[in-house]
Amino acid sequence: MNLSKTYFLGLMLLALNACGQKIKEDKNKNNANTVQATVITEKVKHDTDDPAIWINPADASKSLILGTDKDTDGALYAFDLSGKVVKRVGNIQRPNNVDIAYGIMLNGKKVDVAVTTERQANKIRILTLPDLQPIDNGGIEVFAGETERDPMGVALYTRPSDQAIFAIVGRKSGPADGYLWQYELKDNGKGALTGTVVRKFGKYSGKKEIEAIAVDNELGFIYYSDEQVGVRKYLADPAAKNDQELALFAKTGFSEDHEGIAIYKTGAKTGYILVSNQGSQSFMVYPREGSNGNANQYDLITEFPVSAMETDGADATNVNLGPNYPEGVFVAMSTDKTFHFYDWRLIAAKIKAAVKK
Fold first, then answer.
1. Exposed, middle or buried by CB within 10 Å (0-12, 13-18, 19+), for 134?
2. What's the N-to-C CA distance of the chain in angstroms?
3. What are the strands, taking DSSP E only, across 188-301?
4. Selection from 216, 208, 134, 148 nearest residue 181 by Cα
5. pLDDT in tens, the chain (357 residues)
6. C-alpha angle 345/346/351, rounded to 5°?
7. Which domains does the chain have, with CATH numbers?
8. Cβ neighbours around 159 below 10 Å, total
9. In 3-state terms, the chain is what percent helix, strand and coil (to 5)?
């Protein structure tokens, strides 16, 4: 084969490879109203999906942002507040979502934990914080006996009355009712946690999937995105014996999927619910306490564009994390293999401006 043919074939291979890759487009690049990230993390190996914020009880400025890298060769990453990778836990088969809980009992001591779904293994994985050591005997099987499994979303609920901790798990597809399964996490007495199914609940439209799940521990509610339909609301406590849907909101204004849900608290019962409008590269903001005196009515407050692209997962905290985040941080996944950290004051300014109108 002569040199010119070799060169031509090389160009063709490069072109085909480019066509097979998803082109990342920043829709807000030239939008002056875009909220720009305060920090952008180092890139993960494959594909970011969902973040969770762990507050360091000894020094909040040393808190960590966890994030999933969803691939067969996947991992759970821990970033410091400057966006640097401080630890990577690999050998997790397509970790999708991650959440955090504080003070679960293990070997007679309270430990903080991170829980992530391991989609290709049909398990949830549990690791201690901040060292990210596994305490699940290789993972807890979920949706056992079901033909439709593929766990994706996960959120943790800590019941205020007794500090019991539950994992609410969603999947790629499932039935029209009973789509979510809720597991109580407990010490098995042998240095590991187990999960027991205590509830099957939640409506599903069948249009796409349910991935983003968020829990408001203090108010006792679960919110989840039924993609291309809206955000559904349920009671979080299985002891309530109430699986009635309380609300379906955020039904309009979304260009594609309803994705990540973050809750920012301004008081005991007040704050904001932020939902990713993935197709528009923006977030929709709703009142945590509801609207017009109705706790189950959620009128849109505002929508703001962000630098993070095609956001799947998001998280927020109001805790002072140091000089860069004195009123907390808002974290959003970006489809360029990164996570974006935002000084909450930037988001607050957008909300305040909208309320004044």
1. middle
2. 70
3. 193-203, 210-216, 221-226, 230-235, 247-249, 258-265, 271-277, 282-287
4. 148
5. 454 554 444 444 454 444 444 556 788 877 889 999 999 999 999 999 999 999 999 999 999 999 999 999 999 999 999 999 999 999 999 999 999 999 999 999 999 999 999 999 999 999 999 999 999 999 999 999 999 999 999 999 999 999 999 999 999 999 999 999 999 999 999 999 999 999 999 999 999 999 999 999 999 999 999 999 999 999 999 999 999 999 999 999 999 899 999 999 999 999 999 999 999 999 999 999 999 999 999 999 999 999 999 999 999 999 999 999 999 999 999 999 999 999 999 999 999 999 887
6. 90
7. 25-356 (2.120.10.30)
8. 16
9. 10, 45, 40
Answer whether 278's CB lies under 8 Å from 259's CB: yes
Q: Find, among 150, 159, 83, the residue nearest to 338 by Cα.
A: 83
* Total number of residues shown for the chain: 357
In DSSP terms, which residues pair with 215 in a beta bridge? 222
Half-sphere exposure (Cβ direction) of 191: Cα atoms closer than 13 Å: 4
Phi, psi of 251 (to 5 degrees): -85, -20
Q: Quote the tokens at residue 25.
A: 């487009």
How does DSSP classify residue 239?
G
Residue 83 in tokens: 């966006």
Are 204 and 190 contacting, i.e. CB atoms less than 8 angstroms apart?
no
- Long-range contacts of residues 130-134, Cβ cutoff 8 Å, at least 24 apart: 130/54, 130/56, 130/64, 130/78, 132/76, 132/78, 132/87, 132/89, 134/89
Global model pTM greater than 0.85: yes
* Long-range contact pairs involving 275-278 (C-beta distance under 8 Å, separation at least 24): 275/212, 275/225, 275/231, 275/250, 276/212, 276/311, 276/312, 276/313, 276/314, 276/332, 277/253, 277/303, 278/254, 278/310, 278/311, 278/312
20 dihedral zone (left: phi>0; alpha: psi -120 to 50; beta): alpha
The C-alpha atoms of residue 57 and residue 34 are separated, in whole angstroms, by 33
Query: At CA 143, angle to CA 103 and CA 239, rounded to 5?
Result: 50
